[in-house]
Design goal:
Length: about 325
């Protein structure tokens, strides 16, 4: 059905005068009358009673007026939604991140984006760095957050992807609240030797697993693996239960029940977290996402982590 004819019909129905309706529509009266007649023939029903003195809606015309208004509103809404999608203000964005991302400022970055673009539906998937790279190359996600270190360099599969460092999360030692490390809130590297350790499994994060193994080996420490788990919440639960210590990237300000966060000396290779996406993906929605993350990262500080820490402390 021609939406223009529907608009003509609604205007005549509201004015109940062909001359006034034509003037409002910026056309002459004869073509307006002709379009209404075509519409009535298409529908097989009379919409108006016409006399020399007045125009009235028929009973079926009154019913059709309600439907016509609804159709026109749906059409306008559809156009408006499509334009928001075109501008990257609405739509669906698939994001990959690593399981321990909840311990970093990434949720705050995502919150900034959602506050700016409340009509965007985010689909966030917990994947290892390797899983994200595979999903990116397959087009299964739009963007990911991939970890690497100065020890191992960037994953080879990032070569054809765009990447931007957005965070250098510090490593901390997480210990049970009654552990001897808890009182000082700081651990010297040598003190980690032989401590019962709860390990984040390699299949859940190969880069981070290899980093921990290398960290202990490089410092001449024995890694006493007592338990393993595939998710940070499980690792932290085992730590809280007193079953060992663990090392994780951790910059969150909220406390973890039963767990104390202890600082490590700063002189060790840094972890780097990069926002990663395919250069072929030119959607405005993805562009708005990367811009928001970039602005959150930069702030007034050239250091990717400094400004983020200030934002976290400010709440």
């Amino acid at each position: 059905m021609d939406l223009k004819r529907l608009k003509y019909f609604v205007t005549v129905a509201e004015e109940l005068h062909f001359g006034r309706a034509a003037k409002k529509l910026h056309i002459t009266q004869p073509p307006l009358s002709q379009q209404i007649q075509i519409l009535e023939r298409e529908l097989g029903m009379m919409l108006f009673h016409r006399t020399r003195r007045r125009v009235e809606l028929t009973s079926i015309g009154k019913v059709f007026l309600l439907e016509a208004r609804a159709l026109l509103q749906q059409s306008e809404d559809a156009v408006a939604r499509t334009r928001r999608v075109q501008r990257g203000e609405a739509g669906r964005l698939l994001i990959g991140w690593m399981p321990w991302s909840v311990l970093t400022p990434l949720p705050f970055m995502i919150r900034d984006f959602c506050e700016r673009f409340p009509d965007v539906h985010l689909d966030v998937r917990s994947l290892s760095a390797e899983g994200q790279l595979e999903a990116l190359h397959a087009g299964a996600i739009d963007a990911g957050f991939v970890l690497w270190t100065s020890d191992f360099g960037r994953p080879a599969r990032t070569g054809r992807l765009k990447t931007e460092i957005i965070l250098k999360p510090p490593l901390v030692v997480l210990v049970p609240q009654n552990h001897r490390f808890a009182a000082s809130g700081r651990v010297e590297i040598a003190e980690l030797a032989d401590e019962p350790y709860v390990l984040f499994k390699r299949e859940s994060g190969q880069v981070f697993y290899d980093y921990v193994i290398s960290f202990y080996h490089r410092n001449g420490l024995r890694l006493n693996i007592r338990h393993e788990a595939d998710h940070p919440s499980t690792v932290l639960g085992l730590v809280a239960a007193g079953l060992g210590i663990t090392i994780l990237p951790y910059t969150s300000t909220h406390s973890i029940p039963g767990v104390v966060c202890c600082d490590l000396p700063a002189a060790y290779p840094k972890l780097e977290l990069a926002l990663t996406w395919r250069p072929q993906n030119e959607s405005a929605l993805l562009a708005n996402f990367t811009k928001t993350i970039r602005e959150y990262r930069s702030g007034n500080d050239s250091s990717p982590s400094g400004h983020i820490e200030e934002r976290l402390k400010a709440g």
